[in-house]
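Would you mind writing out the residues of a protein together with its fold in token form for me to study?
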Amino acid sequence: MLDPGKILVGEFDHSYLVKLRGYVRLTLCASLGRYMERIFQGDCPEHVLIDLQDATGLDSTTLGLIGRLALHCRDQFHLKPLVFCDNPDVLRDLTTMALDEFLDIVATPPPQTPLRELPVDDAPVAEVRQRIIDAHKLLARINPEREAEFLDLVHAIEKDVSL
């Protein structure tokens, strides 16, 4: 059985820390997406930190959201998020999706900071679908080798929405 996922967040010294625990899947994508909007709307942070030390797995929607965060940080804040991860499976997922090009990844522990758990948002189905579509379009854009795979999923979801 998969370890249920959790998202914890903290802010300190003009920096954000997002900690993912367990297996983080699309059921948490609305919570993560809404928190990212808070980061995007704020002043330029000094650091954006992503702690994956306790993550056992990330689905493709979560990886797409991490990619969105990384690209926004690069384009708007001129910084790369710093990722703390020593799990070979999670590292392989980041590399396979080409996210390692947009993130600085280290195996050291993150700074200690008080964290609070993000509640699971009961987002409308339409919002969840749109987040899935956007995440996979982004993954297709940054990872041309897997573009067809991601776009096939996007087209299937879009077709399902139009029924």
Notes: The CA atoms of residues 5 and 140 lie 25 Å apart. The domain at 6-120 is CATH 3.30.750.24 (Transcription Regulator spoIIAA). The chain has a mean pLDDT of 90. The two ends are 33 Å apart (CA to CA).
